[in-house]
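help with this record:
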Amino acid sequence: MSKATDPRLRLTRRRLLATTAGGLVLTGLAPTRLLAQEPLRVAGIYTVPVEQQWVSRIHQAAEAAQARGDVTYSFTENVSNTDYARVMREYAESGIQLIVGEVFGVEAEAREVAAEYPEVAFLMGSSFMPDAALPNFSVFDNYIQDAAYLTGIIAGAMTQSGNIGMVGGFPIPEVNRLMNAFMAGAREMNPEIRFQVAFIGSWFDPPRAKETAFGMIEAGADVMYAERFGVSDAAMERGVLAIGNVIDTQASYPETVVASALWHFEPTLDAAIAAVRAGSFSAGNYGEYSYMIHGGCSLAPLGTFEGRVPEAATALVAQRTAEIAAGSFTVEINDDEPRSS
Protein backbone atom coordinates (compact mmCIF):
# COMPACT_ATOMS: atom_id res chain seq x y z
CA MET A 1 0.00 0.00 0.00
CA SER A 2 1.39 3.42 -0.91
CA LYS A 3 1.24 6.32 1.47
CA ALA A 4 -1.14 8.00 -0.95
CA THR A 5 -3.69 5.31 -0.01
CA ASP A 6 -2.76 5.10 3.67
CA PRO A 7 -6.07 4.62 5.53
CA ARG A 8 -4.93 7.19 8.09
CA LEU A 9 -5.36 9.81 5.37
CA ARG A 10 -8.95 8.90 4.54
CA LEU A 11 -10.54 11.87 6.24
CA THR A 12 -14.07 13.19 6.38
CA ARG A 13 -15.34 16.71 7.01
CA ARG A 14 -18.48 16.68 9.06
CA ARG A 15 -19.79 19.99 7.85
CA LEU A 16 -19.34 19.59 4.10
CA LEU A 17 -20.98 17.29 1.56
CA ALA A 18 -18.63 14.75 0.04
CA THR A 19 -19.93 15.14 -3.50
CA THR A 20 -18.04 15.06 -6.78
CA ALA A 21 -18.97 15.23 -10.42
CA GLY A 22 -20.51 11.78 -10.38
CA GLY A 23 -20.36 9.24 -13.13
CA LEU A 24 -17.71 10.95 -15.21
CA VAL A 25 -14.99 8.78 -16.67
CA LEU A 26 -12.05 10.93 -17.74
CA THR A 27 -8.74 10.12 -19.30
CA GLY A 28 -5.49 11.06 -17.63
CA LEU A 29 -3.61 14.24 -18.45
CA ALA A 30 -1.52 14.15 -21.57
CA PRO A 31 2.15 15.15 -21.31
CA THR A 32 2.61 18.90 -21.45
CA ARG A 33 3.11 20.18 -24.96
CA LEU A 34 5.63 22.76 -23.80
CA LEU A 35 9.25 22.34 -24.68
CA ALA A 36 11.32 21.12 -21.75
CA GLN A 37 12.89 24.52 -21.15
CA GLU A 38 9.57 26.40 -21.13
CA PRO A 39 8.02 27.04 -17.72
CA LEU A 40 4.76 25.43 -16.67
CA ARG A 41 1.88 27.87 -16.32
CA VAL A 42 0.65 27.75 -12.71
CA ALA A 43 -2.07 29.73 -10.92
CA GLY A 44 -3.05 29.97 -7.25
CA ILE A 45 -6.57 30.68 -5.98
CA TYR A 46 -6.83 31.62 -2.31
CA THR A 47 -9.79 32.53 -0.10
CA VAL A 48 -7.62 34.60 2.25
CA PRO A 49 -4.70 37.03 1.85
CA VAL A 50 -1.40 35.45 0.82
CA GLU A 51 0.01 36.70 4.13
CA GLN A 52 -2.18 34.22 6.03
CA GLN A 53 -0.06 31.43 7.50
CA TRP A 54 -1.35 28.42 5.58
CA VAL A 55 -1.67 30.08 2.19
CA SER A 56 1.64 31.90 2.57
CA ARG A 57 3.48 28.58 2.42
CA ILE A 58 1.83 27.64 -0.89
CA HIS A 59 2.50 31.12 -2.26
CA GLN A 60 6.14 30.98 -1.16
CA ALA A 61 6.71 27.60 -2.79
CA ALA A 62 5.16 28.80 -6.06
CA GLU A 63 7.31 31.92 -6.06
CA ALA A 64 10.40 29.77 -5.46
CA ALA A 65 9.49 27.56 -8.43
CA GLN A 66 9.05 30.67 -10.54
CA ALA A 67 12.42 32.06 -9.44
CA ARG A 68 14.02 28.80 -10.59
CA GLY A 69 12.37 29.19 -13.97
CA ASP A 70 10.24 26.06 -13.57
CA VAL A 71 6.90 27.89 -13.72
CA THR A 72 5.20 31.16 -14.43
CA TYR A 73 2.94 31.95 -11.50
CA SER A 74 -0.11 34.14 -11.11
CA PHE A 75 -2.57 34.20 -8.24
CA THR A 76 -5.82 35.64 -6.95
CA GLU A 77 -6.36 36.14 -3.22
CA ASN A 78 -9.41 36.91 -1.04
CA VAL A 79 -11.71 34.90 -3.32
CA SER A 80 -15.08 34.24 -1.70
CA ASN A 81 -16.50 30.73 -1.72
CA THR A 82 -19.35 31.91 -3.95
CA ASP A 83 -16.83 33.22 -6.49
CA TYR A 84 -14.34 30.37 -6.34
CA ALA A 85 -15.71 28.28 -9.22
CA ARG A 86 -15.79 31.32 -11.52
CA VAL A 87 -12.13 32.11 -10.86
CA MET A 88 -11.21 28.47 -11.46
CA ARG A 89 -12.93 28.55 -14.83
CA GLU A 90 -11.25 31.81 -15.82
CA TYR A 91 -7.79 30.42 -15.12
CA ALA A 92 -8.59 27.14 -16.88
CA GLU A 93 -9.84 29.02 -19.94
CA SER A 94 -6.70 31.19 -20.00
CA GLY A 95 -4.34 28.28 -20.65
CA ILE A 96 -3.14 27.64 -17.11
CA GLN A 97 -1.85 24.08 -16.81
CA LEU A 98 -1.77 23.61 -13.03
CA ILE A 99 -4.15 25.29 -10.60
CA VAL A 100 -3.35 25.24 -6.88
CA GLY A 101 -5.68 26.35 -4.11
CA GLU A 102 -7.84 25.39 -1.14
CA VAL A 103 -11.39 24.19 -1.64
CA PHE A 104 -12.42 23.30 1.90
CA GLY A 105 -15.67 25.27 1.61
CA VAL A 106 -16.40 24.51 -2.06
CA GLU A 107 -15.56 20.83 -2.50
CA ALA A 108 -18.43 19.87 -4.79
CA GLU A 109 -18.27 22.98 -6.96
CA ALA A 110 -14.49 22.73 -7.40
CA ARG A 111 -14.66 19.12 -8.53
CA GLU A 112 -17.41 19.96 -10.99
CA VAL A 113 -15.20 22.63 -12.53
CA ALA A 114 -12.24 20.22 -12.71
CA ALA A 115 -14.44 17.76 -14.60
CA GLU A 116 -15.09 20.44 -17.23
CA TYR A 117 -11.36 20.90 -17.92
CA PRO A 118 -9.73 17.45 -18.07
CA GLU A 119 -6.54 18.86 -19.64
CA VAL A 120 -5.89 21.10 -16.62
CA ALA A 121 -4.28 19.70 -13.45
CA PHE A 122 -5.83 20.74 -10.14
CA LEU A 123 -3.91 20.40 -6.85
CA MET A 124 -6.24 21.47 -4.07
CA GLY A 125 -6.14 21.64 -0.31
CA SER A 126 -8.97 19.37 0.80
CA SER A 127 -10.17 17.14 3.62
CA PHE A 128 -11.57 14.65 1.14
CA MET A 129 -9.76 11.99 -0.83
CA PRO A 130 -9.16 11.99 -4.58
CA ASP A 131 -11.70 10.32 -6.87
CA ALA A 132 -10.42 7.94 -9.55
CA ALA A 133 -13.24 9.16 -11.81
CA LEU A 134 -11.67 12.63 -11.72
CA PRO A 135 -8.01 11.93 -12.60
CA ASN A 136 -6.97 15.57 -13.02
CA PHE A 137 -7.92 16.51 -9.42
CA SER A 138 -5.42 15.75 -6.64
CA VAL A 139 -5.59 16.79 -3.00
CA PHE A 140 -3.16 17.81 -0.28
CA ASP A 141 -3.22 19.02 3.31
CA ASN A 142 -0.74 20.18 5.90
CA TYR A 143 0.15 16.95 7.66
CA ILE A 144 2.72 18.63 9.91
CA GLN A 145 1.81 16.67 13.02
CA ASP A 146 5.48 15.67 13.42
CA ALA A 147 6.64 19.25 13.92
CA ALA A 148 3.57 20.17 16.00
CA TYR A 149 4.36 17.32 18.37
CA LEU A 150 7.92 18.62 18.84
CA THR A 151 6.67 22.11 19.67
CA GLY A 152 4.38 20.53 22.24
CA ILE A 153 7.37 19.02 24.02
CA ILE A 154 8.91 22.48 24.26
CA ALA A 155 5.66 24.06 25.45
CA GLY A 156 5.26 21.40 28.11
CA ALA A 157 8.70 22.24 29.44
CA MET A 158 8.19 26.02 29.35
CA THR A 159 4.85 26.33 31.13
CA GLN A 160 5.12 27.22 34.80
CA SER A 161 1.40 27.15 35.55
CA GLY A 162 0.73 23.84 33.79
CA ASN A 163 -2.01 25.67 31.87
CA ILE A 164 -1.77 26.07 28.08
CA GLY A 165 -4.21 28.01 25.91
CA MET A 166 -4.99 26.94 22.33
CA VAL A 167 -6.81 29.11 19.80
CA GLY A 168 -7.75 27.58 16.44
CA GLY A 169 -9.75 28.62 13.40
CA PHE A 170 -12.24 25.77 12.91
CA PRO A 171 -12.38 22.29 14.52
CA ILE A 172 -11.67 20.48 11.25
CA PRO A 173 -9.15 17.70 10.54
CA GLU A 174 -6.28 19.88 9.33
CA VAL A 175 -6.47 21.94 12.54
CA ASN A 176 -7.43 19.16 14.94
CA ARG A 177 -4.51 16.89 14.01
CA LEU A 178 -1.97 19.62 14.76
CA MET A 179 -3.57 20.56 18.07
CA ASN A 180 -3.78 16.91 19.16
CA ALA A 181 -0.15 16.28 18.22
CA PHE A 182 0.90 19.41 20.13
CA MET A 183 -1.04 18.27 23.20
CA ALA A 184 0.53 14.80 23.02
CA GLY A 185 4.00 16.34 22.95
CA ALA A 186 3.26 18.62 25.91
CA ARG A 187 1.97 15.69 27.95
CA GLU A 188 5.27 13.89 27.39
CA MET A 189 6.85 16.56 29.58
CA ASN A 190 3.97 16.90 32.03
CA PRO A 191 1.00 14.50 31.94
CA GLU A 192 -0.94 16.80 34.26
CA ILE A 193 -1.00 19.83 31.94
CA ARG A 194 -4.38 21.50 31.50
CA PHE A 195 -5.49 22.81 28.10
CA GLN A 196 -7.96 25.56 27.27
CA VAL A 197 -9.19 25.01 23.70
CA ALA A 198 -11.31 27.39 21.61
CA PHE A 199 -12.10 28.00 17.93
CA ILE A 200 -12.90 31.43 16.54
CA GLY A 201 -14.87 30.33 13.46
CA SER A 202 -12.63 32.14 11.01
CA TRP A 203 -9.41 31.58 9.09
CA PHE A 204 -8.37 35.20 9.34
CA ASP A 205 -9.69 37.32 12.20
CA PRO A 206 -6.71 38.45 14.33
CA PRO A 207 -8.80 40.70 16.63
CA ARG A 208 -11.13 37.83 17.56
CA ALA A 209 -8.21 35.45 18.07
CA LYS A 210 -6.50 38.04 20.25
CA GLU A 211 -9.54 38.55 22.45
CA THR A 212 -10.00 34.80 22.83
CA ALA A 213 -6.35 34.48 23.88
CA PHE A 214 -6.73 37.29 26.43
CA GLY A 215 -9.53 35.31 28.09
CA MET A 216 -7.35 32.21 28.34
CA ILE A 217 -4.43 34.15 29.78
CA GLU A 218 -6.73 35.65 32.39
CA ALA A 219 -7.78 32.08 33.22
CA GLY A 220 -4.17 31.10 33.98
CA ALA A 221 -2.55 30.10 30.67
CA ASP A 222 1.11 31.07 30.51
CA VAL A 223 1.83 29.45 27.13
CA MET A 224 -0.39 30.01 24.09
CA TYR A 225 -0.65 27.80 21.00
CA ALA A 226 -1.03 30.32 18.18
CA GLU A 227 -2.81 28.41 15.43
CA ARG A 228 -4.24 31.76 14.24
CA PHE A 229 -2.83 35.27 13.81
CA GLY A 230 -3.58 37.51 16.78
CA VAL A 231 -2.75 35.00 19.52
CA SER A 232 0.94 35.92 19.71
CA ASP A 233 -0.02 39.59 19.96
CA ALA A 234 -2.08 38.83 23.05
CA ALA A 235 0.74 36.75 24.53
CA MET A 236 3.27 39.51 23.94
CA GLU A 237 1.03 42.16 25.50
CA ARG A 238 0.40 40.03 28.60
CA GLY A 239 3.97 38.80 28.98
CA VAL A 240 3.37 35.09 28.39
CA LEU A 241 4.89 32.73 25.83
CA ALA A 242 3.55 31.48 22.51
CA ILE A 243 4.12 28.58 20.11
CA GLY A 244 3.81 29.32 16.40
CA ASN A 245 2.20 27.28 13.65
CA VAL A 246 3.03 26.85 9.93
CA ILE A 247 5.33 29.90 9.76
CA ASP A 248 8.10 31.28 11.99
CA THR A 249 7.08 34.60 13.55
CA GLN A 250 9.81 34.82 16.18
CA ALA A 251 11.42 37.81 14.45
CA SER A 252 8.24 39.77 15.18
CA TYR A 253 7.89 38.37 18.72
CA PRO A 254 11.48 37.73 19.87
CA GLU A 255 10.61 37.40 23.57
CA THR A 256 7.29 35.66 23.05
CA VAL A 257 7.41 32.95 20.35
CA VAL A 258 9.55 30.12 21.66
CA ALA A 259 9.24 27.70 18.75
CA SER A 260 7.14 27.05 15.67
CA ALA A 261 6.08 24.07 13.59
CA LEU A 262 6.96 24.97 10.00
CA TRP A 263 5.17 23.72 6.90
CA HIS A 264 7.24 23.43 3.73
CA PHE A 265 5.00 23.18 0.68
CA GLU A 266 7.90 22.89 -1.77
CA PRO A 267 8.00 19.05 -1.81
CA THR A 268 4.26 18.92 -2.54
CA LEU A 269 4.32 21.48 -5.35
CA ASP A 270 7.52 20.17 -6.91
CA ALA A 271 6.07 16.66 -7.08
CA ALA A 272 2.96 17.98 -8.82
CA ILE A 273 4.98 20.04 -11.30
CA ALA A 274 7.08 17.01 -12.18
CA ALA A 275 3.97 14.87 -12.64
CA VAL A 276 2.30 17.38 -14.96
CA ARG A 277 5.45 17.68 -17.06
CA ALA A 278 5.76 13.90 -17.30
CA GLY A 279 2.10 13.47 -18.20
CA SER A 280 1.62 11.29 -15.13
CA PHE A 281 -0.52 13.64 -13.03
CA SER A 282 -3.54 11.71 -11.78
CA ALA A 283 -5.96 11.64 -8.87
CA GLY A 284 -3.75 11.30 -5.81
CA ASN A 285 -3.24 12.36 -2.22
CA TYR A 286 -0.18 14.56 -1.89
CA GLY A 287 -0.56 14.77 1.90
CA GLU A 288 2.46 12.55 2.49
CA TYR A 289 4.79 15.26 1.17
CA SER A 290 4.06 17.30 4.32
CA TYR A 291 5.57 14.63 6.55
CA MET A 292 8.91 15.43 8.15
CA ILE A 293 10.50 12.42 6.49
CA HIS A 294 9.83 14.06 3.10
CA GLY A 295 11.04 17.49 4.20
CA GLY A 296 7.50 18.81 4.36
CA CYS A 297 7.73 20.14 7.91
CA SER A 298 10.32 21.01 10.51
CA LEU A 299 10.84 22.63 13.88
CA ALA A 300 11.93 26.25 13.55
CA PRO A 301 15.27 27.18 15.16
CA LEU A 302 14.92 28.25 18.78
CA GLY A 303 16.69 31.50 17.95
CA THR A 304 16.25 33.93 20.83
CA PHE A 305 15.23 31.04 23.08
CA GLU A 306 18.37 29.01 22.39
CA GLY A 307 19.67 27.87 25.77
CA ARG A 308 16.47 28.96 27.53
CA VAL A 309 14.48 25.76 26.94
CA PRO A 310 15.12 23.12 29.62
CA GLU A 311 17.76 20.60 28.62
CA ALA A 312 15.41 17.65 29.17
CA ALA A 313 13.07 19.05 26.52
CA THR A 314 15.76 19.79 23.94
CA ALA A 315 17.18 16.31 24.46
CA LEU A 316 13.77 14.70 23.94
CA VAL A 317 13.16 16.85 20.85
CA ALA A 318 16.48 15.70 19.38
CA GLN A 319 15.68 12.07 20.19
CA ARG A 320 12.19 12.16 18.70
CA THR A 321 13.40 14.02 15.60
CA ALA A 322 15.95 11.29 14.93
CA GLU A 323 13.37 8.57 15.57
CA ILE A 324 10.84 10.18 13.22
CA ALA A 325 13.50 10.44 10.50
CA ALA A 326 14.41 6.77 11.03
CA GLY A 327 10.79 5.66 10.99
CA SER A 328 10.99 4.19 14.48
CA PHE A 329 8.60 6.74 16.02
CA THR A 330 5.29 7.81 14.50
CA VAL A 331 3.27 10.78 15.65
CA GLU A 332 -0.38 9.80 15.78
CA ILE A 333 -2.71 11.46 13.26
CA ASN A 334 -5.74 12.27 15.40
CA ASP A 335 -8.40 14.30 13.59
CA ASP A 336 -10.88 14.30 16.49
CA GLU A 337 -11.85 17.70 17.83
CA PRO A 338 -9.61 18.53 20.80
CA ARG A 339 -11.31 19.50 24.05
CA SER A 340 -10.37 21.59 27.03
CA SER A 341 -9.13 19.44 29.87
User: Anything to note?
Assistant: The chain has two domains: 3-140+264-294, 145-263+310-326. The mean pLDDT is 90. The chain has nine helices and eleven strands. Residues 145-263+310-326 form a domain with the Rossmann fold fold (CATH 3.40.50.2300).
